[in-house]
Design goal:
Layout lengths: L1 H70 L2 H12 L11 H5 L27 H7 L11
Organism: Blumeria graminis f. sp. tritici 96224
GO molecular function, one term: DNA-binding transcription activator activity, RNA polymerase II-specific
Subcellular location: Nucleus
Length: 146
């Protein structure tokens, strides 16, 4: 019977050692998971910071480009568009702009009661409210959220 008691004692000792080792491994595993979570959290925070900075830079660039677009004279843009439209038109090899209007240019862009296109300019009162918001130069003070 003594040997059966010894076997039982050895089995208990083995189980205690196995449980102790299991708890140690579990604790190490939890520590490594917590460390990985902290690193990922830190990396995410850095990425969020970087993206917010990039977002602010892009907003400033966007605002500057909008201001540049709306500060340039509309006349210059309309003149260049009108000049591009004054070229000869050809519908097909056999039909050209000269045969349609007789002058080699497209139909008149101005009527007796109209101004030439080069004299047009856009004022703030002609813009819709949503477009007027883009003409304000201080858009960077508006708050944005992700």
């Amino acid at each position: 019977m003594d040997s059966a008691a010894d076997k039982e004692e050895r089995k208990r000792e083995y189980n205690r050692l196995a449980q102790r080792e299991f708890r140690r491994r579990r604790k190490e595993h939890l520590k490594s998971l917590e460390q990985a979570q902290k690193e990922q959290s830190s990396e995410r925070a850095e990425e969020i910071q970087r993206l917010r900075f990039q977002n602010e830079e892009l907003k400033r660039e966007n605002d500057a480009l909008r201001a540049q677009i709306y500060s340039t004279s509309s006349t210059g843009h309309l003149m260049s568009n009108a000049t591009m439209d004054n070229r000869q038109y050809s519908l097909s090899p056999s039909v050209s702009g000269t045969s349609l209007s007789g002058t080699g240019s497209p139909p008149n862009l101005v009527g007796p009661d109209m101004l030439p296109m080069g004299n047009l300019s856009m004022s703030a009162s002609m813009m819709t409210p949503s477009l007027q918001a883009y003409t304000e130069h201080d858009l960077s003070t508006q708050s944005y959220s992700l």
